[in-house]
Design brief:
The chain has 8 helices and 2 strands; from the N terminus they run ααββαααααα. By secondary structure, it is mostly helical. β1 and β2 form a beta hairpin. The chain is elongated.
């Protein structure tokens, strides 16, 4: 599962709860944009509306997290590496494990070891 699909399901649940938050005006604004009679959007296209929903969900519900913290919240261990598209060889896994490292050791290696970064194409 990707972060995008996970967030879409969380945002859908938030929509069903009528955008429950401390900001009641937000649900009124979202409701005003949707014409329930014609089952269509009034002012924004669907993609624009979803972008606003995502923005406000991340801002209000998730409390404006750093993107890496968001990944760590929803994924753990190997799932986190898969979600970040970090695919290590078994040899590197063993080397990192022998040095007493886990995920933090891998992320430290990404920060400090340019050869490791080049090998796995993690430059971005």
């Amino acid at each position: 599962m990707t972060l995008y699909s996970l967030l879409r399901s969380k945002i859908s649940a938030w929509r069903v709860s009528n955008y429950k938050s401390d900001f009641t005006a937000l649900s009124e604004i979202f409701d005003f944009n949707f014409d329930s009679k014609n089952q269509s959007f009034r002012f924004l296209r669907k993609a624009q509306f979803e972008a606003l929903e995502t923005y406000w969900y991340l801002r209000i519900v998730e409390r404006n997290p750093h993107i890496f913290d968001l990944y760590k919240k929803y994924f753990s261990n190997r799932d986190l590496l898969d979600a970040l598209n970090i695919k290590l060889t078994e040899e590197d896994w063993q080397q990192i494990a022998l040095n007493g490292g886990g995920l933090n050791a891998i992320f430290k290696k990404i920060v400090e070891d340019d050869d490791f970064v080049r090998k796995y194409r993690l430059e971005a």
